[in-house]
Amino acid sequence: MKEEKSNRDMIVETNRDVKWICRTLEEMKESIGDHENRIRDLEGFKSESAGRERQISAGVGAGAGGLVAVLMKFLQ
């Protein structure tokens, strides 16, 4: 037969379990915080990249417009 645990043994075991649960929850919170920071960094990088692409597009459009103006001047 299985030996019955004393109240003291159960309290010690419960205390150990509660400490383990608290440590695990703290690790999960830290992990979630790290993930949120990474997501924010990626979103910032994405918006910076999109801004650069718009600037490049605007620059290409302005250059093409200037080239057309010069060609039109020569053709007249």
Strand content: under 5%
| Large-scale geometry | rod-shaped
Helix content: over 70%
Average pLDDT, rounded to a whole number, is 77
Distance between the termini: 108 Å
Sheet with the most strands, sense and barrel status:
none
Structural domains: how many: 1
Give the class from helix and strand content and strand pairing: mainly alpha
By DSSP, the count of extended strands is 0
Could you give the order of the helices and strands? H
Rounded to an integer in angstroms, the radius of gyration calculated over CA atoms is 33 Å
Uncertain runs:
none
Distinct helical segment count: 1
Question: Any key phrases for this structure?
Answer:
mainly alpha
Protein model, in words:
The protein has one domain. It is rod-shaped, with a radius of gyration of 33 Å. It has one helix at residues 7-75. It starts with 6 loop residues before the first helix and ends with a helix. The longest helix is centred in the middle third of the chain and has 69 residues, at 7-75. It has 76 residues and is mainly alpha-helical.
Write the layout of secondary structure elements.
Elements: H1 7-75
